[in-house]
Amino acid sequence: APTGVTDDSIEFEPLLSVKSHFVVGTDHPLAQKKTLTVADLTEHKMAMVSVRRHVSLLVADLFASEKLSLATPAVETNSLALLRSLVLSNDYVSILPDHFLAADLEGNRIVRLPVTGTPFERSAGLILRRRDSRRPAISHFISAARQVSKS
Fold this sequence. Notes:
By secondary structure, the protein is an alpha/beta fold. The chain is built from five helices and six strands; from the N terminus they run E-H-E-H-E-H-E-H-E-E-H. The protein starts with 9 loop residues before the first strand and ends with a helix.
């Protein structure tokens, strides 16, 4: 969801909630920990999305709440698939959405880390212009997105 949008011509329609956790592969040193602090993460290589500024801000805020600064990640990419691969290598900590990792979580290949202050939860949905005349294809897409989000 966009933060700080004050333009009256724009509306945000939330459709679903997206939860994200810090995750590691099952053989990573942090995988068996019962509780973790943000400080525990600073001792391990991080891989993060570079194009999702809102995720970076959430993580930076979490680190700041513990009076820590977020170091530059060892790897930054716009590919969730690459981040998943790096996590599966057991060398990196990353933050990824639960729905993207559902099969890996169920198959016990990836572990959610019990970090204080997580999971991160955000709304995802449609950003629309209020007074925009919509083409039929756009109206159909919006209708389909609403339907899928209900299931």
